Amino acid sequence: MAKIGIYGSSFDPVTNVHLWTASTVAHRCKLDKVIFLPCSNKRKEKTMKTSDEHRWNMLQLAIAKNDKFLADDYEMKRDAWEVYTVFTMQHFKKLYPDDDVYFIMGADLLVDIADGKWKHDEELISQNKFIVMARDEIDMVKTISRSPLLRNHDDGSRFHLIDKGLAMEISSSYIRDEFSKGGEPRYLLPDACYDYIQEHGLYREK
């Protein structure tokens, strides 16, 4: 039985922090695979700065040399009404029926679930396992404790909390801002992605 982590983000663009985080989570949680899942551009709360094609191409370049890393365009292909994490996890659990499948997320998303901001939250939490990464001094244990939904499904294996050494400040938005203002973010993302962005003139001010 393999252990597989589902790592969703906009990856607009994919950064070295994304790769370092995925590698660290795989190492600490003994994952056999990490599946990078670019989110749909149809989500109302997300505004992509470049096309699905460019995001997908850069992600493929970024993970090409790591055998543990895969990319999947499942959410990219969904209609907006289908793009909920509970449906995504159902898909991957059917795809890997003999394996343990975990949803990888930041502690900020755990807070959102505790605050009732996620659709189908009862179904999502009751049916899945989660790897939760520290964010901005959020107390993950207190977040679980204050939520009836989270604490009543915390059976000791539901939430794998990683609370040391995963807080880094460089984001995709920071890199986009650097490109748009003529900055030099070369070493914040994979060389192949940097070259791709330069070649296609991405993230430049119009």
UniProtKB/TrEMBL annotation:
Keywords: ATP-binding, NAD, Nucleotide-binding, Nucleotidyltransferase, Pyridine nucleotide biosynthesis, Transferase. Pathway: Cofactor biosynthesis; NAD(+) biosynthesis; deamido-NAD(+) from nicotinate D-ribonucleotide: step 1/1. GO terms for biological process: NAD+ biosynthetic process. Gene3D superfamilies: HUPs. GO terms for molecular function: ATP binding; nicotinate-nucleotide adenylyltransferase activity. Belongs to the NadD family. Catalyzes the reversible adenylation of nicotinate mononucleotide (NaMN) to nicotinic acid adenine dinucleotide (NaAD). This is Probable nicotinate-nucleotide adenylyltransferase. It comes from Fictibacillus aquaticus. The gene is nadD.
